[in-house]
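Deliverable D2.4 — example input (structure tokens):
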């Protein structure tokens, strides 16, 4: 078994997918109209849930579906992918690394396909401003939340800790808190640091920074190693002005994609992305992270292929 295969299998297990259930999905079936849009969103407060709600509102107004779109609050990317490929949702937002791992080996109607690249997530490692923690290696022996199972950022946190030579075993205590709980725990000094991956700025962290001076750990010393092992990641910078930081911080970034499955008819898929871009200012209002969403960058969903309906839309706008 190759290393890549082992990673994909571990990712499927982290996402909570029952391999037997996925294998039992029909390999071919005619595309049928979607009765109701169900969007797998994310945690509150967070960019995923805000963008999902904005999309639901846009589609309700512009497409007038028979039933109002429903937005699900979830732990994040891994749970969203589980919902998408098992039929619990027909639209999902996910980090492209998680989506790629889960999509491996899935064919037929359940195959995840992209409508658009949305924006890039940035991995935050948040500590109190008065903390002595400066680098990932300083987390050895610390109380750290790596994010909940089902989130997209827990796998990133574990990979970063491994790249830093700390690993989970090197932590003093490991917690699996979601963003709201981690924010409270840091304020109450119950943890020393927490991981989060989200758009910049993320509301929950901005609110924390308004109440408590914070810093983000600089990841520059492990980024080359991370990208060698996982080329899907990119390097970015969080400006100091984002959260009132002492200075800019080197970070890890990963693309977010808007996904449906091959079961979605081409015409409906095209209508969804057409309506979304027609009301793009509404997405920007939902979160500053969504300001960068446009039809030229939206085709960059690799290695997840675009849905044929989305391809038709981008060709018509000369974005493809």
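Example output (designed residues):
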């Amino acid at each position: 078994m190759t290393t890549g295969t082992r990673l994909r299998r571990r990712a499927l297990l982290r996402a909570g997918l029952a391999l037997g259930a996925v294998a039992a999905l029909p390999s071919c079936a005619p595309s049928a109209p979607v009765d109701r849009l169900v969007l797998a969103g994310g945690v509150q407060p967070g960019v995923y849930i805000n963008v999902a709600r904005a999309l639901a509102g846009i589609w309700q107004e512009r497409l007038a579906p028979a039933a109002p779109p429903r937005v699900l609050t979830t732990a994040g990317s891994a749970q969203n992918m589980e919902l998408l490929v098992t039929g619990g949702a027909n639209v999902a937002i996910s980090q492209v690394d998680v989506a790629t791992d889960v999509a491996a080996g899935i064919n037929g109607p359940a195959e995840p396909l992209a409508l658009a690249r949305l924006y890039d997530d940035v991995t935050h490692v948040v500590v109190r401003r008065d903390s002595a923690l400066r680098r990932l290696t300083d987390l050895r022996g610390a109380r750290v939340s790596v994010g909940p199972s089902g989130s997209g950022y827990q796998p990133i946190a574990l990979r970063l800790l491994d790249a830093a030579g700390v690993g989970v075993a090197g932590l003093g205590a490991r917690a699996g808190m979601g963003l709201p709980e981690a924010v409270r725990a840091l304020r109450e000094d119950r943890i020393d640091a927490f991981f989060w991956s989200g758009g910049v700025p993320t509301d929950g962290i901005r609110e924390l920074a308004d109440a408590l001076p914070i810093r983000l750990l600089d990841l520059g010393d492990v980024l080359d190693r991370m990208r060698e092992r996982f080329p899907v990641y990119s390097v970015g910078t969080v400006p100091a002005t984002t959260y009132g930081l002492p200075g800019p911080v080197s970070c890890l970034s990963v693309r977010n994609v808007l996904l449906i499955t091959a079961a979605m008819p081409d015409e409906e898929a095209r209508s969804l992305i057409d309506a979304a871009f027609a009301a793009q200012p509404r997405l920007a209002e939902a979160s500053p992270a969504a300001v960068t969403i446009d039809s030229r960058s939206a085709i960059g969903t690799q290695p997840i292929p675009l849905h044929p309906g989305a391809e038709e839309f981008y060709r018509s706008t000369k974005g493809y």
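The domain at 3-22+31-119+255-316 is CATH 3.40.190.10 (D-Maltodextrin-Binding Protein; domain 2).
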